Amino acid sequence: MDLRNLNYFQVLAEELHFGRAAERLNISQPPLSRMIKQLEDEFGVLLFERTKRKVLLTSAGAELLVQTKQMISQMASIKKRLKIVGKGESGNLRIGYVGATMHTNLPNLLNSFHENYPEINLNFEEQPNLNLIQSLNNGTMDVAFVRTWLNPKNLEEKIISTESLIAVLPMKHNLSNQKMIKIKDLENENFISFARDCGPTIFDSFLELCSTSGFAPKIYHQATQLNSILRLVECGFGISLLPESISENNTLKLKFIPLHKKTKNIPLIMLYRKENANPSLAHFLNSFSN
């Protein structure tokens, strides 16, 4: 028994006329009669009552018709599913990130991809920079997002966006009412910054801004988590220079003030292994090319 035989059976069961069924199947009547006889021999039951005037389904034939419709429908679903999987429109993508990337437009970009490819499951994992590189290289992760240039071997780096640093001050700071701040005006401040091994590009850009303004910053504390920096600033332990996207949707008692010297040098970078054979990755990379 194969699906073609069952398809012939279903058409005859719907038409209850060998001539019309054969015409619908675009074959002659004898091959159709042979197919039906083969099915009856295989199942060991009569599927049709045949007289000179009419063709009727037996009770066994009626049951087979129900089962046949289900099998044909299931096979159509399987074919459709396999086509989706084969095109990479279904599957799994393992996405790594450092925490600071979640304060950019990245979550919106990921959500947009998810809406366009709902059959691709996105599995997220937060890790430090070096762990992300290791996971990409050993194949346990498909793509990763970082905020610093790492120049890793065997991996591709694609810049998604860039932004400037912004001054982050406590609400009651004496400069909190300024519309714009000169870096030189921050010379005597205590700074709360990222630890360099967590955010080298952010840390180095912060140092460079201060250096070009003629002073070395007084770093009161270096933190590994963005929320730690923001809470310490909120409580008055110091100020910080952070990527401007940090100011979006922030509910802490902080003031975010643009700097006089605006340089878009803080990147959001996507890392991936070019040889990765995951078909869903191609769709993901294309979505970030638009």
TrEMBL record:
InterPro entries: LysR_HTH_N (IPR000847), LysR_subst-bd (IPR005119), WH-like_DNA-bd_sf (IPR036388), WH_DNA-bd_sf (IPR036390). Pfam families: HTH_1, LysR_substrate. PROSITE patterns: HTH_LYSR (PS50931). CDD domains: PBP2_LTTR_aromatics_like (cd08414). Keywords: DNA-binding, Transcription, Transcription regulation. Residues 1-58 form the HTH lysR-type domain. Belongs to the LysR transcriptional regulatory family. This is LysR substrate-binding domain-containing protein. It comes from Flavobacterium polysaccharolyticum.
